[in-house]
Amino acid sequence: MVAFTSIALAATTLLGFTAAAPANQVRSTGVIHRIFAGSTTANGGLHFEPENVVAQIGDLVEFHFLPKNHTVVQSSFDKPCEPLASGAGVFSGFNFATAQGESKNVFTFQVQNKEPFWYYCSQIIGNHCQMGMSGVINQNFDGDKTLAKYKVNSKNTKTVQPSADILKSQGGWIQPNMPL
Ligand SMILES: [Cu+2]
């Protein structure tokens, strides 16, 4: 599926996006996990669906954004609603606002390892992370670091943005939202 990645990158370039795919690409499996940021039903819309995903190294994770203006930020379990150290981790940027239906672009990143990948929405209007808008890829189901616990620990936190430039994505790339 190298060809797929190449096409995606070409499309990204053509559209003039500056976000490049991460340099540390592993071999693609060809598997794409689609996750919706937002919901028409669950948790007043403050929900990732599905919010608990098992993925293999090399899989792609593709976020589709529903109203209103959500993000995806990589986090640690221990510090909910905070990004990894400055400049590190995955961040979609605030590039996917939509008043109705899906945003015209998606945000994609590649799974690089089997470590649990915690993430949250950094929209502060409505305190999305504190309200439970978070998710995980490859949770350790034998351990006590669960998504339910992450959500509980989120409640009394303050959301932190990954960088001063909240439009600048990192760790993944922006692509057109292609019909299936
Ligand atoms: Cu949100």
Structure write-up:
- With 180 residues, the protein is an alpha+beta fold.
- The chain has a single domain, classed as Immunoglobulin-like, CATH 2.60.40.
- 12% of the residues lie in helices and 21% in strands.
- The protein has a five-stranded mixed sheet with strand order 2-1-4-6-9, with helices on one face. A four-stranded mixed sheet has the order 3-8-7-5, covered by helices on one side.
- Bound molecules: copper (II) ion.
- Copper (II) ion binds next to loops.
Blueprint (SSEs and pairs):
Blueprint: H1 2-14, E1 32-37, E2 48-49, E3 52-53, E4 60-65, E5 73-75, E6 105-110, E7 117-120, E8 134-137, H2 147-154, E9 173-176
Parallel strand pairs: 1-4, 3-8
Antiparallel strand pairs: 1-2, 4-6, 5-7, 6-9, 7-8
The structure holds copper (II) ion.
CATH topology: Immunoglobulin-like
Output the CATH homologous superfamily. Cupredoxins -  blue copper proteins
DSSP E strands, number: 9
Characterize the main sheet. Answer: 5 strands, mixed
Shape, principal axes of CA atoms? globular
**CA-based gyration radius:** 15 Å
CATH class descriptor:
Mainly Beta
| Tally of individual helices | 2
Give the neighbour order of strands across the main sheet: 2-1-4-6-9
The protein's oligomeric status is single chain
Q: Give the rounded overall mean pLDDT.
A: 89
Helix content: 10-25%
Structural class, please?
A: alpha+beta
- DSSP strand (E) fraction? 15-25%
What is the CATH-assigned architecture?
Sandwich
Bound molecules: copper (II) ion
Uncertain spans, ≥5 residues at pLDDT below 50? 1-18
